[in-house]
Design brief:
InterPro entries: AAA+_ATPase, ABC_Ni/Peptide_Import, ABC_transporter-like_ATP-bd, ABC_transporter-like_CS, Oligopep_ABC_C, P-loop_NTPase. This is Oligopeptide/dipeptide ABC transporter, ATP-binding protein. Pfam families: ABC_tran, oligo_HPY. By secondary structure, the chain is α/β, with parallel strands linked by helices. It folds into 2 domains: 3-88 and 168-269 and 277-328, P-loop containing nucleotide triphosphate hydrolases (Rossmann fold, 3-Layer(aba) Sandwich); 94-167, no CATH class. The chain has helices at residues 47-54, 77-84, 96-99, 106-118, 122-135, 141-145, 154-166, 184-201, 212-218, 236-241, 246-253, 261-266, 295-299, 315-326, and strands spanning 3-16, 19-32, 36-40, 63-66, 69-72, 75-76, 89-92, 172-176, 204-209, 221-226, 229-235, 305-307, 310-312. The strands form 2 sheets. Strands 7-8-9-3-10-11-13-12 form an 8-stranded mixed beta sheet, sandwiched between helices. Strand 1 (3-16) and strand 2 form a beta hairpin. Helix 4 (106-118) crosses helix 5 and helix 7 runs parallel beside helix 8 (184-201). The two termini are 31 Å apart. The protein binds adenosine-5'-triphosphate. Residues 14, 16, 21, 23, 41, 43-49, 59, 62-63, 210, 277 line the site of adenosine-5'-triphosphate.
C-alpha cells in the first residue's frame, strides 16, 4: 500500500516554567491511501498534540515540533504545512460549535472556504457545497445553507463540519474525538458517514478516540498511545483478536462485550493513573501499572519489536527475542 503520510521520530516539546514536557515523544507511523488509522489512548497520552502537529497548529512558544521525517504526499510538513492545511489535509474537532461561526449562515461559511481556498466564484462554491453535502447524505442541503448553526442539533452540526472539512477534497482527514460529545445513536450515524466518505472521496483518515469500541467500528490500523509513547501498532483485527501490549489488554478489558469470556479471565484491569509527563517513569512508562513488569522494564525503554504483523514496544516480546537468540534459533 502506498503511503500518503509518513512520520518518523515525532516529538513535540513544550517548554514550561515547571520543566520540559514531551508528548508525543519519538513516535513513528504512517497512513496508507484510503486507510483509517485509529489513535487510541487515555487522556493526556498525546493524541491531540500529534494531530495538531501534523496540521502545524502547535502554539510556539511553548511548543516545538521535531521529527526525522514528516512527509505528506512527498512534501515536508515541517516546512510546507501552510500550503497544505485546510486543503489537502483537514481536521474535524470534537466540538463543532467552536469551529462554526455562530453569527454567520452555514451556507456563507461553506462558500467562504471554497472562495478563499479553491478560488471559486460564489455561485460555483454554492453549487459545490450543496453537492458535497448531498454526497455525504445530509438532508435538504439547499435549505440548510440559509440557516444558522444554532438551529441544528449537535449531530447535524458535526455533519456540517465534516462537509466543511471535505470541501477542498482533502487526501487526509484528521478527526479528533468527533463523536465523543454525541449520544450513541448519533455517534454510529456519524461513524457511518466517515466510513462512506472514505470510499466516496478516496480520503485517508486519522481517527482519534479514547474509545476502543469506536476504533472497532472505524479503523483499519490502530496506534495505541500511552503517556506520550506509542505502545502498539497493529491491524484492527490483531488489536482485538491478538492484542500484545499489557496496556492494550487493559484497554480491551474495559470492553467486556467485545471479548470472549475465556480471554476476559486473563486480561488485566489497569490500576493507577497515567503518569505526569514532566517527569515520566524511567524505562517503560507503563511499568508502574503493569502486572507483568520485569526488572528491565523499570530500567530501559523498550524498543520496537515486530511480532507477526504487529509492532509492540514491550520487553515481554524482547525477552522472547533474547531467549531465541541465546538458544541459537
Ligand atoms: N499548549 C500546550 N502547552 C503545554 N502543554 C500542552 C499543550 N497542549 C498539550 N499539552 C500537554 O501535552 C500532553 C498531551 O496532551 P494531548 O491533548 O495530546 O492528550 P490527549 O491524548 O489528546 O488527551 P485528551 O483525550 O484528554 O484530549 C498533556 O500533558 C497536555 O497537558
Amino acid at each position: 500500500m502506498s503511503h500518503v503520510l509518513e512520520v518518523e521520530d515525532l516529538t513535540v516539546e513544550f517548554r514550561l516554567p515547571e520543566g520540559i514536557l514531551r508528548a508525543p515523544d519519538g513516535i513513528s507511523f504512517s497512513v496508507g491511501e484510503r486507510e483509517v488509522l485509529g489513535i487510541v489512548g487515555e487522556s493526556g497520552s498525546g493524541k491531540s498534540v500529534t494531530a495538531l502537529s501534523l496540521m502545524g497548529l502547535i502554539p510556539s512558544p511553548p511548543g516545538k515540533v521535531k521529527a526525522a521525517k514528516m512527509e505528506f504526499m512527498g512534501k515536508n510538513l515541517l516546512k510546507e504545512v501552510e500550503e497544505i492545511r485546510g486543503k489537502k489535509i483537514s481536521m474535524v474537532f470534537q466540538n463543532p460549535l467552536n469551529s462554526l461561526n455562530p453569527s454567520m449562515k452555514i451556507g456563507a461559511q461553506l462558500i467562504e472556504v471554497l472562495v478563499n481556498h479553491m478560488n471559486m466564484t460564489k455561485p460555483e462554491a454554492k453549487e459545490k457545497s450543496i453537492e458535497i453535502m448531498k454526497n455525504l447524505g445530509i438532508p435538504s442541503p439547499e435549505n440548510l445553507m440559509n440557516r444558522y448553526p444554532f438551529e441544528y442539533s449537535g449531530g447535524m452540526r458535526q455533519r456540517i463540519m465534516i462537509a466543511m472539512a471535505m470541501l477542498c477534497n482533502p487526501k487526509l482527514l484528521i478527526a479528533d474525538e468527533p463523536t465523543t460529545a454525541l449520544d450513541v445513536t448519533i455517534q454510529s450515524q456519524i461513524l457511518y458517514m466517515f466510513r462512506e466518505l472514505k470510499e466516496e472521496f478516496e480520503t485517508s483518515l486519522i481517527f482519534i478516540t479514547h474509545d476502543l469500541g469506536v476504533i472497532a467500528q472505524i479503523a483499519d490500523r490502530v496506534m495505541v498511545m500511552y503517556a506520550g509513547k506509542q505502545v502498539e501498532n497493529a491491524s484492527v483485527e490483531d488489536i482485538f483478536k491478538n492484542p500484545k501490549h499489557p496496556y492494550t489488554l487493559g484497554l480491551l478489558d474495559s470492553l467486556p462485550k467485545l471479548i470472549p469470556e475465556k480471554r476476559k479471565q486473563r486480561l488485566l484491569s489497569i490500576q493507577g493513573n497515567v503518569p505526569g509527563l514532566l517527569k515520566p517513569p524511567k524505562g517503560c512508562r507503563f511499568h508502574p501499572r503493569c502486572s507483568k513488569a520485569m526488572k528491565i522494564c523499570t530500567e530501559k525503554e523498550p524498543p520496537a519489536f515486530s511480532v507477526g504483523s504487529s509492532t509492540v514496544w514491550c520487553w515481554l516480546y524482547g525477552r522472547e527475542v533474547a531467549n531465541n537468540e541465546a538458544a541459537g534459533n
